[in-house]
Amino acid sequence: MVEVYTWAIANSYAFAADPRGREGNDGTIRDPPTADKTEPVTTINWRDVMVWCNALSEKQALTPVYYTDNLQPALLKIVNDADTILPANGDIANDCVKWDANGFRLPTEAEWEYVSRYRDGSA
């Protein structure tokens, strides 16, 4: 995680908040993060997650998913606060997902619902 963050900052990515968030429901911040972390990250805004996914995708030589508008001319790399993507890099009304990209992304609502219904390995 620290490696991705360091790479992202060195490659012109910017986050509104600390993208490490907090671990689990106890709100612990571990610095450096634990290598064997089994808890999800919490208290992170979704726009930072979109930028994080693009950074991880690009770092791993995958096609990033999030762009600044539907023409996909510019990769979404910068968020300036919890509510706004910098105007030079698009705005929240024009975020665009490149669905055929092989990079990392957030699940869709349907994907999230499908996974949340999983029960005991058979359903």
What does this entry show, briefly?
25% of the residues lie in helices and 7% in strands.
Task: Give the SSE map.
Blueprint: H1 2-10, E1 22-23, E2 41-42, H2 46-59, E3 66-67, E4 96-97, H3 109-116
Antiparallel strand pairs: 1-2, 3-4
Helix pairs in contact: 1-2
Topology, number of strands: 4
Indicate the radius of gyration in whole angstroms.
15 Å
What shape does the CA trace take? globular
Mean pLDDT: 77
End-to-end Cα distance, whole Å, is: 33 Å
**Which class best fits the helix and strand makeup?**
alpha+beta
Low-pLDDT segments: none
- Number of contiguous helices: 3
Order of helices and strands: HEEHEEH
Into which percent range does the helicity of residues fall? 25-40%
List key phrases describing it:
123 residues, alpha+beta, two-stranded antiparallel ribbon, 25% helix, globular
Report on this model:
The chain has 123 residues and is of the alpha+beta class. The chain has one domain (2-116). 25% of the residues lie in helices and 7% in strands. The chain has helices at residues 2-10, 46-59, 109-116, and strands spanning 22-23, 41-42, 66-67, 96-97. The longest helix has 14 residues, at 46-59.
